Amino acid sequence: MSKKHYHKKYLPLIVGTSIAIGLVINVMVNGNPSRFTSNNTNQLKINQLLNYIENDYVDEVNTDSIVSTMVDQMLDNLDPHSTYIPKEEYLRVKENLQGEIVGIGISFFKIEDSIAVIQSLPDGPAKKVGVLPGDRILYANNIQLHDQNLSNDSITKILKGEMNSVVHIAVKRKGYDSLIEFSIARNRIPIKSVNAGIALNEELGYIKINRFAETTYQEFIEKLNALKQQGVRKLILDLRDNGGGFLKEAIAIADEFLPNETPILFTKNRSGKTKENFASRKSSFLNGDVYVLINENSASASEIVAGALQDNDRGYIVGRRSYGKGLVQREMKLADGSAVRLTVSRYYTPTGRSIQRPYKNGNKAYFNDYHNRFENGELIEKDSISVNDSLQYTTPGGRIVYGGGGIVPDIFVPKNLADLDEDLDYMLKGGVIDRFVFDELDKNRSYYNQLSEEDFKDFEIPNEMLLNYTEYLNELAFNYNFETHQTKLKRFLKASIAKQLFSEEEAYRILTQSDAMIDAVQKHIEK
After folding, report:
1. C-alpha distance from residue 93 to each of 20, 219, 383, 524 (Å)
2. In which band, very low, low, confident or very high, does the pLDDT at 117 lie, cut at 50, 70 and 90?
3. Domains in the chain, ordered, with CATH?
């Protein structure tokens, strides 16, 4: 089976919510009807056409669908990042960027038409009343959840609700003949945008940010302060696969590394009006070395942080050329509960460079840029990265940087394009390994649920589990020989177990033990 088919097959297994790449001004703008007067002939033309279709067209039509299609086509003619968000998606996207939901605090899989608890989140309502990993939720407020073929969104809507409202659930637990009932008061559940903040050794810390939500700066500063208390003097800031988010959060984080009045970025709108952003507070990490990890999926707000530190000669950028998005969107709500993100300005790094890559060849070519990078070899060799000499800039420290297409790293780390290595990475990110691990844990819940984090440090993946994983993939029509990749597979399996039993941060303690970009940082420090 081809890798293309592999990705399609496993896409539904992805756990969690992904957000579109973008940089958003944290302002909600309501439509102002007074801007559209009877003198606006284009507006009248659209309204008349819709009225004709709705009242006189020979067949019944869904005008809502027509309007949505029209909006999509209008935005497609602007730029790749002006987008329409339908009503049904808007609340989910908004929650993800707000950084919290109101619910009972569980993650779950749908398994054979039942709702299986992966984890009761730390300090969440479900954990406090005793809901355990492996429990099957059969009923919620007398609504049958099993054997109903419900979507994940439908299940989530049932379990979410108003603050302090109560949901009554009945669960099936192994070893119990009858159902166990819980009454759970819903509460605010954080959607973490900072996955981990850990000390890799006595002086080097590591913080992973997966997106820039409303709570990201606060999450970041808590992790940074904890690391400083442990004696950390050098920091790795991991922005790989971070597609962006709120502008103000990126500025606030960059501010923590820069002296007062140091430029962070400036934006320019259609009329040429500029807004400058400078470091404005006492930096909490002014003197320690900083290493920012980026890759081809680091975009927007991630590039603002990387660009601000690179242009001010404050730290090293490590990895591969970033995505190349230098446009700023404002979110504007529409009357039916949907919204648009409209590009309202461009941003520039402190040296004055725009890192937005060209999109004159259309959206399809723009979003297929990864394939161009693959073909031209830049994922393997830094010298293959195409730069525009006319967009060359010089930092105050004399470093040469380029505009026109992402942030070029100071320390290049190639991508491992070996098929099995890539497939293992996709299996981890796409949830395939997580789904297998859940089944393995479910075979002996009583043993795994009593493990402490201290006990788990000495836990080793048994060879039987490797064989089971191979058989699991065989059942899905994939044939792999992991003989030469056992070490990596064991690390991924152990990280998945740690995430399901303890926390994502514990998983990162394992994943960072062998990471090409982190290894490159440590070699640079040792020079």
Report:
1. 9, 19, 38, 39
2. very high
3. 100-190 (2.30.42.10), 194-329+344-415 (3.90.226.10), 418-525 (no CATH)
